Amino acid sequence: MVDLVTPSHVADYLLAESRDRGEVLTNLKLQKLLYYAQAWHLALYKKPLFDEDFQAWVHGPVLPSQYRRFSRNEWRPITEQVDRPHFDDADIEKFLNEVIDVFGTETAVSLELMTHRERPWLEARGGIPMDESSQARIDKAVMREYYGSL
Questions:
Q1: How open is the CA angle 65-86-13, to the nearest 5 degrees?
Q2: Mean per-residue pLDDT for 71-85?
C-alpha cells in the first residue's frame, strides 16, 4: 500500500490502468496525463498529488524524473511492465481513473496542443519562443487557480 504518493506511483498507475484498457502510452502522453492529474488534483482538492514540479518544455509540461525514467523509449510506446500501486486512499485510484476517462481518450499531440493554449504553461514559458528548450517551472499556485476556475 502507498501512503506517500510519488510521481513514480502515479506514473505506474496510469501506465497499468491504460494498458488494462487496451492502450500503451508513450512518454509524451504519460507526461500529459501526469500533468492533468496534478492540475485537477490541485483544482479539486487544493493540494498537490505529489511534490515534484513540472517544467514548461517545448512539447508541453514535463515531469523531469518521469521523463528521464522512460526516455529510452523516445517516441515509442512504454512497454516495460510496471506494478500497479495500491494507494491507502482509495479516492486516489478513483480520481486517477477519472483523469484517464477524460484525458486518456485524447491523442498525445492533442493533449500537447491543449496545454499550449492554457495559462500555466504559457506563463511559465513567458517570452521563450515555442521551439526553444526551457526548464522553466510551472507554478502549482497558477495551476490550482487556472484549473479551479474552469
A1: 45
A2: 94
